[in-house]
Design brief:
By secondary structure, the protein is of the alpha/beta class. It contains 6 helices and 9 strands. Strands 2-3-6-7-9 form a 5-stranded mixed β-barrel. A two-stranded antiparallel sheet has the order 4-5.
């Protein structure tokens, strides 16, 4: 396991050696982008009003404070379950050129194909740290599609040392969650057999 510090814009070379299980800290541009924004781009063919090419998106519905001077402040920004975006993500990556997709939990073959073909990473932010994550947001620089409401708005942020982010899909298309399932299932079968012997007297 290695630790990387990435700054947007991110090139193919920046992430080509990063592998599943590695840790990433992000500096630069991070835009929250979840269900409805993905649907607008992929199904409704509406251009994304934020340029995320060679940058990062976060599957999240943050809590935002509006200040009197018209600026915004990040209060909490916990990740949303990434699997909700799975059916859109391959096409989303193709169209936008995003390099880092940050969320919670694993993703499936569509995202694996996208990460391998278009050279991107899916990363997991540890759950339960939404307030801490907000401390890494230095500034909210833009807000688009505010008609969607606070959780679905595209909040474009400047972040510093945003992480730790655990790489779950790398540019080879390897999937940490899927590999772990195989390992865990092997362990499970062994444990079931052991336990069955211990409780075989129960009728």
């Amino acid at each position: 396991m290695k630790t990387y510090h990435l700054t947007t814009p991110i090139s193919d070379d920046d992430i080509k050696d990063i592998r599943i299980g590695d840790i990433v800290y992000l500096n630069g541009s991070l835009t929250t982008c979840r269900d409805v924004a993905h649907r607008r781009l992929v199904e409704e063919h509406r251009p994304l009003p934020v340029d995320v090419r060679n940058k990062a998106i976060l599957h999240a519905g943050p809590i935002i404070k509006a200040n009197d001077d018209g600026t915004y402040e990040m209060v909490a920004v916990g990740p949303t379950t990434s699997m909700r975006m799975e059916k859109f993500e391959e096409e989303f990556v193709k169209q936008t050129g995003v390099k880092l997709i940050v969320g919670k939990g694993g993703m499936d073959p569509g995202t694996q194909r996208a990460c391998k073909k278009y050279k991107a990473l899916h990363l997991v932010y540890p759950a339960g740290n939404a307030v801490y994550a907000a401390l890494k947001v230095q500034k909210i620089v833009d807000a688009q599609w505010k008609d969607l409401g606070m959780p679905e708005t595209l909040w474009s942020c400047e972040v510093k040392d945003y992480g730790p982010l655990i790489v779950s899909i790398d540019t080879n298309g390897d999937n940490l969650f899927e590999k772990n399932k195989v390992i865990f299932n092997e362990r499970k079968e062994k444990e079931i057999k052991r336990i069955q012997k211990q409780v075989s007297f129960i009728k």
